[in-house]
Amino acid sequence: MNRLAPDELEDAGVTASDQPIPCRPRALTRVELKRKDVYAFLSPKLSREVWLTGALSFAVSLQLEFDTETTAYCERPRQLELRDGVIEIAFWTRRSSGEECLWLLIPTIESEPAAGGKRRYRREDHALEAAERAHVRLRFIFETELISAGTSLSVWFGLLPYVQTAHVLDNYAAIEARVREHFHYLKASTFSQVEAALQEFNPHDVRSTICRAIHEGWLRIDSSHPLHVHTVLEPGARNAD
Questions:
Q1: Cβ-based burial of 67 (10 A; exposed 0-12, middle 13-18, buried ≥19)
Q2: CA quadruple 139, 142, 73, 57: dihedral positive or negative?
Q3: Enclosing H/E stretch for 138
Q4: What are phi and psi of 34, to 5 degrees?
Q5: CA distance 144 to 162
Q6: Any idea what DSSP says for residue 18?
Q7: How does pLDDT run across 133-147, given as a tens digit for each residue?
Q8: Which of 85, 148, 203, 233 could pair covalently with 195 via S-S, beta carbons 3.0-4.6 A apart?
């Protein structure tokens, strides 16, 4: 995965949000770095490195990174004091609507079956009570939901290095203009078709630009299907931006 410096993304004009983020991620301890399964990547959305422990947290970060309605997020933003102990919040998020929320990641072992084939956090009542005392909005992300989203997560993981590359391309603006022009006339096209239409550019640079367009929401794909050169691209909700 590309390891681009944060200042390179900042120079490219990348910002997490027009509003300041009200929290900072808790730094991982030496013990966590040595003993836990650690994931790190440079977030184009946040313009900084994101450090996580565990595959589940990494999976959630990919969802947040490519959710165009999520304008900012922060890992390990705070703790909540429950009646029977303290829990660490997995993520804070802000959506384009301005809604802010805290997310608690629930492994299957910490949940139980609920109505409608869903899962329920075993300490849900205590957690929601603590959130109410702290005047914060709390939601739950279950491991089973992430497993069900496996194909989409694989797609986002495949796109991420290209998005990172696009932010430091010297000729990004020129390629972006040509890609936008292409979709002005054709409302659907595949990766390979766009690359063929823009033969004057390096195909890897074109693909990186397309992936950044997906990340920013002015192109979209169906992430429920595996990613390949024949994946269909269409104008996204932010196409007019």
A1: middle
A2: positive
A3: strand 138-142
A4: -85, -35
A5: 28
A6: S
A7: 999 999 999 999 999
A8: 203
Pairing of strands 48-53, 38-43: antiparallel
Contacts of 20 (CB under 8 A, 6+ apart): none
Domain ranges of the chain: 6-148, 150-235
Kindly report, residue by residue over 104-128, the tens digit of the pLDDT: 999 999 999 999 889 999 999 999 9
pTM of the model: 0.89
- pLDDT tens sequence for the chain (241 residues): 333 344 444 443 344 556 889 999 999 999 999 999 999 999 999 999 999 999 999 999 999 999 999 999 999 999 999 988 999 999 999 999 999 999 999 999 999 999 988 999 999 999 999 999 999 999 999 999 999 999 999 999 999 999 999 999 999 999 999 999 999 999 999 999 999 999 999 999 999 999 999 999 999 999 999 999 999 999 998 775 5
CATH number of 150-235: 1.10.10
Residue with tokens 């184009």: 44
Give the number of residues written for the chain. Answer: 241
In the structure encoding, which two tokens stand for residue 77, read together? 């933003």
Q: Comparing 6-148 with 150-235, is the CATH topology the same?
A: no
Q: Which of 177, 165, 178 is nearest to 212 (CA)?
A: 165
6-148 carries CATH number 3.40.1350.10? yes
Q: Which two tokens stand for residue 117?
A: 């084939």
